[in-house]
Amino acid sequence: MLSLATVLWSSCQEVITVELPDQEPKLIVDALVRLDTTQSTTLVSIEVRQTSDFFGTITPVSVDQMTLSNLDNPGNNTDQVLDETEPGSGIYQQVFSTHELARDRWFLQIDYLGQIYVAESRMQYAVPIDQLTIGDGSLFNEESTELLVRYTDIGDRQDFYLFDYNNGDFFASEDLFYDGQQFEFSYFYDKTFNPGDTLTVSIMGIDRDFFNYMNLLREQSEGGFGPFASPAVSVRGNLINATDIDNNNNYNNVNNPDNYALGYFALVQEYRKSVVVE
What we know:
The chain has 278 residues and is mainly beta. The protein is 6% helix and 46% strand. The protein has two helices and 19 strands. It has helices at 98-103, 208-219, and strands at 2-9, 12-19, 27-35, 41-50, 59-60, 65-70, 80-81, 83-84, 91-97, 105-112, 115-122, 129-135, 145-152, 160-164, 170-174, 182-189, 198-206, 240-241, 262-276. The strands form four sheets. Strands 3, 4, 5, 8, 9, 14, 15, 17 and 19 form a nine-stranded mixed sheet that branches. Strands 7-6-10-11-18 form a five-stranded antiparallel sheet. Strands 12-13-16 form a three-stranded antiparallel sheet, with no helix packed on it. Mean pLDDT is 84; it is low at 1-11 and 247-254.
């Protein structure tokens, strides 16, 4: 792909031709399914967008079909189709039993322009947030707000957690050094809040693969990031292209390794807690 750039120097104008690398469009799938296990049903909402060329924008896309299948109980409402909320929105939703989502393994399939993208997930458990308080510490300047998050890990198992601060910033943690203990850490917002403002934090249970994926995204980003806003192309999630896989002669996609979707499909248990700024 060729792009023209105009460079002004003194009173002269020179046109320079810059050759930019071609970039094949890729789907971006936001399939982080948060489960409140105290509720009987869960509205599963999955958003699909697509990258364009080198300088292009990310836009919603309508896929041919999106299904979510129960792998452990295939005869029970198998292959449930998710419906697009509005034509062209790229947001697909369907109501599922929370108990079944939490209990079984689930298989996501997205059909788009003759390609099939698939991923599998099982819900990972989280723990409630014990306490959420506003601290008086500062990080780099006085225009910041400290939030203290305290929770108690469950012992005798390896746990990974994902924290969502509802400002586009996420943080992944593992219980390697606090297994079975109560743990507290600080998070700093880079602004101050007014009295009466409410701050809400989510804690979600994730597995090791999702934990590694989130850490790679953080390494390649500066400051806050969203896991599905604009993932780096080099950071692969768990969505693979299964178009040519037939389980007979072809059982992997090694002949087309670069044809995959960005993003991640994960079922997570979520707890939320809020605190009001005084």
